[in-house]
Amino acid sequence: MNLEINGKTKLCGLMGDPVEHSVSPAMHNAAFRALGLDYAYLPFHVRREDLATAIAGVRAFNIRGLNITIPHKIEAMGLLDETDRPARQIGAVNVVVNDCGRLSGFNTDAEGFLSMLTEHGIEPQGKNVVVLGAGGAARAICFALASRGAALTILNRTAARARACVKDIAKAFSTQVNALDLNRENMAYALQKAGMLVNATSVGMLPDSGATPVDSDLLGPHLTVVDIVYNPRQSRLLKEASKAGAKIINGLEMLTWQGALAFERWTGLQPPIDVMRRAASAALRQHEK
Ligand code: ATR
User: Fold this and answer.
1) Which of 147, 159, 255, 272 has an alpha carbon within 20 to 30 A of 27's alpha carbon?
2) Quick one: which atom of ligand 1 is closest to the CA of 157?
3) Does a structural domain hold residue 3?
4) What amino acid positions are annotated as catalytic residues?
5) Which secondary structure element, helix H or strand E, spans residue 151, and what is its range?
6) Which residue's alpha carbon is at the smallest distance from atom 7 of ligand 1?
């Protein structure tokens, strides 16, 4: 169904820098069309110094909803009227809803990660999970897993960031959570007793698709390996994990789920997840050309 922009069309969009290669416009516009909704989604290239003006513009233009991406996920929090608890714990927002000028911020990375696991029949409760990374995405994943009672081992290049993440999680949840320095010995030790490995670093992302954060001999069939890298769709880590007999989940899944939950917040409707997944995948293929 093709929708024409008209006087009543509701506008959503993405604020970030850069935004040119985002698949979110394709994913959300496909979802709006599939449900016949009078909505449109645009990318907004907003520089760091313009963020406050851009957020004021959301109120002035009565934009219904936003995705917030790099580098604004932390800064945006202070410009909204309210943020939900997960967003405050994680320290970042990736979704904004505008209700008559009142802006509410959410973090759907965390919830999206859990929905993705549920779709794959994975229950985090009682699982030993190794998380690589301690940036915004890693923190969302760690809080999500901790909230469901998984035991966590966090390894990050900058050890202090991993320790800060452990401290914040320990304040909110009683689950077991440790930080280890990122080296082969610790990785081998942690992976031996783990059921799941999540790469929440950017290692392996194009143009460095030859890189992997884990030596392949440490992978095995006892693991479910999740990579947030979606470009390339199957990272070197996932290729080697699959070869080693592990179950794998690629980054497109988390991307789709965080988008689906944003869609639900803006529209109040059940997101057409398969439509969104297909549109995101097609947009990625387009970028790969
Ligand atoms: P995001 O919000 O997308 O998570 P980020 O906050 O910049 O982005 O975090 C990127 C993550 O990838 C961090 O954990 C980073 O490690 P540092 O905290 O040490 O910076 C990790 N990362 C990026 N490049 C890396 C590399 N070459 N080797 C190991 N870790 C890397």
Assistant:
1) 147
2) 19
3) no
4) 73
5) strand 151-156
6) 135
